[in-house]
Amino acid sequence: MTALLPRRGLAQILALIVILAVDRAVSPQFFDLRLQDGRLFGSLIDVLNRGTPVALLSLGMVLVIATRGIDLSVGAVMAISGAIAASLADSHGLPIVLAAALGAGLLCGLWNGFLVSVLGMQPIVATLILMVAGRGIAQLITEGRIVTFSSPDLVWLGNGAVLGVPVPVAIALGMLILTGAVVRGSALGLLIEATGGNARASELAGVGTRAMIMAVYVWCSICAALAGVIAAADIMGADANNAGLWLELDAILAVVIGGTSLFGGRFSLVLAVLGALIIQTMNTGILLSGYPPEFNLLVKAVVVLAVLLLQSPKLSGFGSIVARLRRTKA
Amino acid sequence: MRGLPPVLITAIVLVAGFALCAVQFPNIASTRVVGNLLTDNAFLGIVAIGMTFVIISGGIDLSVGSVIGFTTVFVALAIERWGVPPLVAFVAVLALSAAFGAAMGAVIHVFDLPPFIVTLAGMFLARGASFLLSTESVPITAPIYSTVSDFALRLPGGGRLTAIAIIMLVIVLGGALLLHLTRFGANVYALGGSRSTASLMGVAVGKMTVKIYMLSSLLAGIAGIVFSFYTSAGYSLSAVGVELDTIAAVVIGGTLLTGGQGSVIGTFLGVLIQGLIQTYINFDGTLSSWWTKIATGVLLFAFIALQQGLVALARRPVARSAGAAS
Amino acid sequence: AQLTIGFSQIGSESGWRAAETSVSKQEAAKRKVNLKIADAQQKQENQIKAIRSFIAQNVDAIFLAPVVSTGWDAVLKEAKEAKIPVVLLDRDIDPSGKDLYLTAVTSDSVHEGEVAGDWLAKTVGAKACNIVELQGTVGASVATNRKKGFDTAIAKHPNLKVVRSQTGDFTRAKGKEVMESFIKAEGGGKSICAVYAHNDDMMVGAIQAMKEAGLKPGKDILTVSIDAVPDIFKAMVAGEANATVELTPNMAGPALDAVAAFKDKGTVPQKWIQTESKLYTAADDPQKIYDSKKGLGY
Amino acid sequence: MENSLDPAPPLLEVCGISKSFGAVRALQEVDFTLRAGEIHALLGENGAGKSTLIKVITGVFPRDGGIVRLGGEEVAPRSAKAALQAGIATVYQEVNLLPNLSVAQNLFLDRQPMRFGIVREAEMRRRAKALLAGFGLDIDVAAPLGSYSVAVQHVTAIARAVDLSARVLILDEPTASLDRHEVDILFGIMRQLAGRGIGIVFVSHFLDQVYEISDRITVLRNGRLVGERETASLPRLELIRMMLGRELAETTSERASAGEHKAREVCASFENYGKAGYVAPFNLELRHGEVVGLAGLLGSGRTETARLVFGAERADRGQAKVEGASVRLQTPRDGVRLGFGYCPEERKTDGIVADLTVRENIVLALQAKRGLYLPLSRREQDEIARRYIKMLDIRPADPERPVGLLSGGNQQKVLLARWLATSPRLLVLDEPTRGIDVGAHAEIIRLIRELCDDGLALLVISSELDEIVTYSDRVVVLRDRAHVDELTGEAIDVSNILAAIAADGATVAHEGRA
Ligand SMILES: Nc1ncnc2c1ncn2[C@@H]1O[C@H](COP(=O)(O)OP(=O)(O)OP(=O)(O)O)[C@@H](O)[C@H]1O
Ligand SMILES: Nc1ncnc2c1ncn2[C@@H]1O[C@H](COP(=O)(O)OP(=O)(O)OP(=O)(O)O)[C@@H](O)[C@H]1O
Ligand SMILES: [Mg+2]
Ligand SMILES: [Mg+2]
């Protein structure tokens, strides 16, 4: 479990603190918390709550990226599972709804894993196929409309609270712990890192690299399916057109902000989730700031670049900038 | 010739696909449809050439769609609102986009950051900048626009080879020349093989990186101008998501995302394959929004699987003869 | 002979759009017209490609729901050369293309905004009122126009003021997220008097956000939005929404009639067939409207 | 060489160079002098800092301190390109060419013959062919470099550097994967270049070659300069003492007596085993406690045999048996489960996982063998890592260092440790001593013997026939991807092996394969 609390991550924590401070500056009541209907209420809770889908996605995505892959289909998988959950919610119990939605995620993951590990397709195109077709499947299920439901169980998943903590946040935390336990509690983490670091060498060392790759795509899709259910529960409806749209990019961004290389190898679950929180803290800050929405993307671009520069291997701290400048002058 | 067999296979896939489509919809086999295919995909073809350089060098450029959007808005505003002569506006916007690409390349190299993320930030930046310029779509009425969009070489059978299609074909040829026959092109492959090794072999990796992203953004700028010809307007939301179409076209064209392998002609074929899928779906015309997406996915899968199958088939005899030869 | 008409639809970005598509199909079936629908997945280039392929197939007429107002001249000129009449649905295009299409069946989205603004001004009266606005997708012409119309309407009433305005991308999830932060930024929502959303979907999300914050939408905070999708009537029944401005999904009906008349008798229709932007409030028996709209494919 | 009293400044002069990687002080105040026209050997143990010194000189690594003078003038190249422009051409230790480019492009990268801005492809190929012909290589230069064996790649790298060297040529272990024949050609060319006044730096762990070719020797140890001597006046034992800082327990070259192996039990056997187009079917018995050597020329099919035996390649005919029972052997996983181990010859691409630590690399195969659900605890991992770091003297002895940062020889030891940790019954070693210093070389050979005594079966590939003769109980000779002869007992000696290799007087082919 040591890798759950990595030594690295200073840059990320620093970035989070800075962005939180900026948020506080644009919105004085940013840190206010109160209890509302047995549920904590405040901007910080919004950050956690809204960050949940991307955090869940990044939990799966970080494993895929660790094997040197990428999964563009997570947004579409969210839409599919949300659509399934919403269509079943009012006629079936929660266990069946969840089983069906997560089962769909499992199938999606098997499909992606099959294309990448068995057919040997490049991950980005292999998952592009499901990214395109998957949203179509989701729309097929809902026939393009927003399917609403009122099943209190499912709604609870989106809006309920345990001990004041919103259920989605609790689920994300649970998934983080579960994933961490599975990955670091078994040899999976090491074998995934080896596969991503050098698949050929790992194969020769007896690692079942195909199975590893299959496993991470499956897990990634299951995480995405869960995120899809939560997103649907949140708005009490499945919006197949928009659920998870472009979230794959946010998830990848979160993973990279969390310091995992897109070239595979070393990964950190906690930092990936922290990356998701950094993104959401920024988004919430933008919403609170009251700037016109035309500025949203510019702010996002600048913050992303700043956060990345903070972690750049070539730029650890101000001192090295000075050193660089001096060297280039010389 | 390195890279020829995959290209040949892609070409076979394209021709076979075209024949199959034509069997179902005989109208497809007309110069009109072929002309449309070239015109409609002109801007995609142009960005895809730039993307080919980037991907072969081992990078990726997610900003191209936004750069196209920015270019159309900038050009439209420059011509219609600021009263700049069109040609001056083109030069200015190309200079801007090239500088933008160079800046991304420089950040990637100097700070050793992953291109995926740097260009993602670039994507936000360019799109955000076009929102700032104008959120409304701006029609362009300059005479050059109607002249260019009216110009077309008539093909036998009613098809039209439009100006923008010709621009695309010229850029494809130029790109092929640059990639396959020049020192710059060889260095692009070298970077894709291994940056560190290329550097040890004396390739100026930093300069190359800057130039490659500059080229990609420059071509995205040209694609933006072509797009503005195509639509006679500038609009901040144009070409959203085009980066993924572009990457798909490049990869279908046989370029490896890991870098070091690929070809310009392959990319061109990849663009045509994507265009063919779209044309087929349009001809069918019975598909709902969702079946359109599903069919696109299925066809994408079919093309790639077919291609991979053929590549695997093509490789097998080679392995055998390699053994026999030694 | 049976007419074949190509319809270049924008995509399926919202429930309203899905309803428009399914209503169009129903209307075409009613008139025994063969309607070919090409879905552009929100991309203008796809729409242009679709129109070109309709021309290549020599259809009798083309319906176009343009994703953006500009950029149609070249392709519409081609249609004109091929003598295929074009009818615009739902959205208009730039004036320079006026002679390139037969007629436009659209609503006036600036007017929609005005209707919403006028209702709010009337309902609030002379009281000071802080409004928060949920905009549509940045850059989308509908969003720009609905904002413009609303702004003009309330400009006459200095007591009405838009204090916050952010994009909710026309979606429920974003509408909810943005509303959550508006509530936080405006002292728990106490100082907000009304929400204006550029579509009903965002408003449905915003209503949830208000409820979760312990506010009573429809009472503590007035709501007005546009589209008149079934779910907003459900909210009205529950007393959680106050008003919506209808954007009818039946644009194809009048368009089909115009094309039929043009083909049979050569009647040239008016250049603009404007659909009604009807205001609905709780006084209009929302339950009944909900029931009637439920089956339309929203 | 008479020019030792030459008053002119030395060609290349390095004074007080230091370089640290974090806490590791790779070089401390190292001086080095290269004269025009001399061949200067740079020697030292694995990790002594040879490659680092070279990279500092050529500007690949920024230096912490010190001065480099070229022809009396101070130079500070900031990239390999700058060094090239200054006239210093280098072959770095790992083959540093691009497998995806054609051989010709590799040779002429960034200096292709041009006309009107277009590369003259035909001219470039002609020149490439001519250049390689000088090294006795006749291959299709338009084919991707990656389709050729390591040896061809290495020769290409050398050819490129030779062609580029204006004043100084640096060769970091150029002969590690070469045959005697190629080495001879290389030495011929080196002498010729030296005759033209070019200074050559030569790094190698083959002391025979060092004595054969070099004029002077500089020895490094632990990042410090130990001394500089004339080769002719430095006895071999003295040199080894300079390198290791201690005496080397001279390895005796006597083998286990010949009659003994018949009594041993068969560990694994392969009957009519082979794969079409890969290796002709062969019969092979591997016994507990016995070392079988595979000998042959480059490309004779030794690596292929090794891969089939381990399961890295799927046989399409024949039967594999372990302890007498038929087994399924189709993937490396099968091999590992059966208790086989395999150290591949290309450690960079097939062996190490560069980003992972020494500890993780060592436990990798053991963990894969135990499966997902029996994870080694961190304590067990530390324990295993520590044991093997000590046993194989891996330096630096830091289990948490990414393996990619170790020197080449130490990476090789980590690989060996990986397999020893699985307590295999059969170990296949493909060129285990490549790039390993004299001290470690002796260690590894001693280890091979010990392993044998413990009942391990060993299949060892080595291009050094002396070495094979030293430890093998049996030697299988390959030619043209077929097993052609098997020598046992007294018959095992270098001349017999050579005779078997060239049995039908066939031309000794050195072509690579497409
Ligand atoms: N890039 C690097 N980062 C950190 N440490 C390094 C790096 N390169 C080399 N080292 C360390 O510097 C020391 C010297 O390594 P170097 O590669 O120069 O040895 P060498 O003499 O060439 O050995 P060999 O004979 O095995 O090739 C070693 O301890 C090595 O671990
Ligand atoms: N199927 C394969 N997949 C991957 N690598 C392979 C395969 N077959 C052979 N190789 C690699 O190709 C190289 C060429 O093998 P080669 O024919 O030279 O074997 P060899 O006779 O052992 O020669 P050497 O003297 O270089 O060891 C080897 O390094 C081997 O690792
Ligand atoms: Mg070395
Ligand atoms: Mg070999």
UniProtKB/TrEMBL annotation, chain A:
Primary residence: membrane
Compartments in which it is found: Cell membrane
Coiled-coil region(s): none
A single Gene Ontology CC term: plasma membrane
Bilayer topology annotation: Multi-pass membrane protein
Keyword set includes Thylakoid: no
Superkingdom in the source lineage: Bacteria
Protein name in the entry: Sugar ABC transporter permease
UniProtKB/TrEMBL annotation, chain B:
Keyword set includes RNA-binding: no
InterPro entries linked: ABC_transp_permease
Source organism, top-level taxon: Bacteria
Keyword Plastid: no
Annotated compartments: Cell membrane
Transmembrane portions of the chain: 6-25, 37-56, 62-80, 87-111, 161-182, 212-230, 294-314
Protein name, as recorded: Sugar ABC transporter permease
Taxonomic source organism: Bradyrhizobium neotropicale
From TrEMBL, chain D:
Domain ABC transporter as annotated: residue spans: 12-247, 261-505
Annotated GO MF terms: ATP binding; ATP hydrolysis activity
CDD domains the UniProt entry points to: ABC_Carb_Monos_I, ABC_Carb_Monos_II
InterPro entries with a match to the protein in the record: AAA+_ATPase, ABC_carbohydrate_import_ATPase, ABC_transporter-like_ATP-bd, ABC_transporter-like_CS, P-loop_NTPase
Pfam families (alphabetical): ABC_tran
Keywords of this entry: ATP-binding, Nucleotide-binding, Repeat, Sugar transport, Transport
SUPFAM superfamilies on file: P-loop containing nucleoside triphosphate hydrolases (SSF52540)
Function per UniProt: Involved in beta-(1-->2)glucan export. Transmembrane domains (TMD) form a pore in the inner membrane and the ATP-binding domain (NBD) is responsible for energy generation.
PANTHER family: CARBOHYDRATE TRANSPORT ATP-BINDING PROTEIN MG119-RELATED (PTHR43790), GALACTOFURANOSE TRANSPORTER ATP-BINDING PROTEIN YTFR (PTHR43790:SF9)
Family, per entry: Belongs to the ABC transporter superfamily.
Record-given protein name: Sugar ABC transporter ATP-binding protein
Organism: Bradyrhizobium neotropicale
